[in-house]
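note to self: dont lose this again. the chain is below, predicted strucutre after it. 290 aa total, dont forget to put it in the shared folder this time
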Amino acid sequence: MTGPLTPTEHGRQDSPPPRRIRRHRVAFFKLLRQINANCFDALLAIPAPQFKLVMDAVVWATKHTMRDIGDLGLTICVELIDNVVAAGPQTSNGFFQAYFLALLQDMFFVLTDADHKSGFKSTALVLARLFKLVEQGDIQVPLDPSATSNPAFVAEYTANLLKSAFPHLQAAQITAFVSALREQYGDFNKFRITLRDFLSASLPPSLPLPPCMCESSSLLTLSLPAVALREFQGEEATEVFQEEREEEAQRKRDEEQARAAAVPGLCASVFSSLCLGTRIPPLTRSFVGQ
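---
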């Protein structure tokens, strides 16, 4: 089985830290998020070596195997990119020249690393933002001295990343996947599904397909081969379907509330029972039908 993409120099936490240290880490990244949200100008004012330490910390968090820290890191990454873009070309051009390619590589590493069980939506959002910046020409300086066109260079760079990590894929298949990302960055749902299919198309035959795998998707267009792009290690790759499961659970809750609202007095009865801590008897078919 082919391993995940090689990360950049930023390290990653491979073993769970003690609970006390974990709480400190979560608090640290919450603080960093607030600094980014409320003191971004001050963050930009610090010297470049210290700013790089901040970026190293954010990227380290995105690679963390503990869900709360990983999700915080990805959220900070999205918000930091938005703040950099909002600061204008004078700030964003230098930032993306220094960090764009590293962020791109690290996000693909997180997506293809079997140890990461969450954060798919946020990682896809970061990638969509990165492709959008390039395709729309928001980065006005070359990302590489040899690059004559940033969109073409990033497409080639991404394809080379995937080819080196997954040599069993054909060049045409990787090219089709990268082209789909370039076209779909403006429609996040399509972009997310394309990434999801690329990661989960090759579930071993012995594992049951999740329900959302049966929907129409870009997989039919990409025609990816039946080869695993994640080291599933005998487990079903359901974390990339977390959003669909949450949406389905919310849909069921909404339907239950709608049914309850259709019965006069039921919602008030439920509220009163919850306040009093009493158990609500199950509804009978005859009562519901009245």
